[in-house]
Amino acid sequence: MNQSKVVIIGGGLAGLTAAIHLRKLNIAVTLVEKNTYPKHKVCGEYISNEVVPYFQWLNIAVEDLRPTDISKLQFSTVSGKTINTVLPLGGFGVSRYALDNFLYQKALADGCHVIHESVENIHFDNGKFTIITSSGTTIQTDLVIGAFGKRSNIDIQLNRNFIQQKSPWLAVKAHYEGSFPNDIVGLHNFKGGYCGVSKVEDNRINICYLASYKTFKEHKNSDGYQKEALEQNPHLKNIFKNTKLLFEKPLTISQISFEPKLPVENHILMIGDTAGLIHPLCGNGMAMAIHSAKIAAEVIDDYIHQRIKTRAQLEKNYTQHWNQTFKSRLKTGRLLANILLKPKLSHIVFRIVMIAPFLLPMIIKKTHGQPITISA
Known about the structure:
Blueprint: E1 2-9, H1 13-24, E2 29-32, E3 46-48, H2 52-57, E4 68-76, E5 82-93, H3 96-109, E6 113-115, E7 119-125, E8 128-133, E9 138-146, H4 153-157, E10 169-178, E11 184-190, E12 193-199, E13 205-212, H5 213-216, H6 222-228, H7 234-241, E14 243-245, E15 251-256, E16 264-265, E17 268-270, H8 285-304, H9 311-340, H10 343-355, H11 359-366
Parallel strand pairs: 1-2, 1-9, 2-6, 4-11, 9-17
Antiparallel strand pairs: 3-5, 4-5, 7-8, 8-9, 10-13, 10-14, 10-15, 11-12, 12-13, 16-17
Helix pairs in contact: 1-3, 1-8, 8-9
């Protein structure tokens, strides 16, 4: 039986960042991740610059990946009308294929123990977790961080509320080669969803869209949906016309839920998409995942060093901090998505923003945070 002070289930952006943070604090960490690296993931692959000070503190030299510097947003309606604005903080584009592997290598170098297996069962009793993996490995630990993504079999085992509801959303992502500005992230509305377009490293263009299953199922496949739904927006039509698919085929994930989730369930501290998923149109999901890892690592450090005395207080502190940081952003994201997917309402809001363009940066700020700093 393996023993570890902290076990992180899931080795995506949030899980790996939490592992690196905890190891910086000299806390023993085991990370359980079913996949190996590198691996492509369905993701917008744009990160707000709010993470930069935190990455610097963690000694994560993301600049080594040669990410693109993104400073502008272009938004278009279904009909192709556009608004352009400067992003308040700006950000950078980097693929999950490169970034997750980069963080994984750093976590290993920092002394994190990684097990490449899936988790079959988690049981909590008498202040201890017992985790059983697919190969029968048993791990005992005091603390568990849940970083297992948008939707997992573990959610079913924990009987989480959102998992009981069928979600009407799916997402499609691929990389392309072609012509697209380095400094722009495009957000293009179409009937049934919206599509993000931006550059990542190596001059690749990431195109990732969220679509309602109701509209998607009317078409035979993603190619048909692209031509008959996305390309009704002239900007998207022009982008697809002038790019070439680099993947064998686009990646697709379904049953994406934006329903509220609890930050702590069954005494597990949830981070990243496992704790709450913001609509991709807000462009802040990756930064939020990274920030949530910081919050979890800090409260765990306080608990281990007796600055937080009880598990109940640990869970309360984490929940409060998580809600203060993210709850309003998630509500704003759901509101914006509802507006964009109602053509008449979207048109009214677009007209208002055209008359008062200063409103758009204000809306962006509502879904983003301040630069993430470390308290002395």
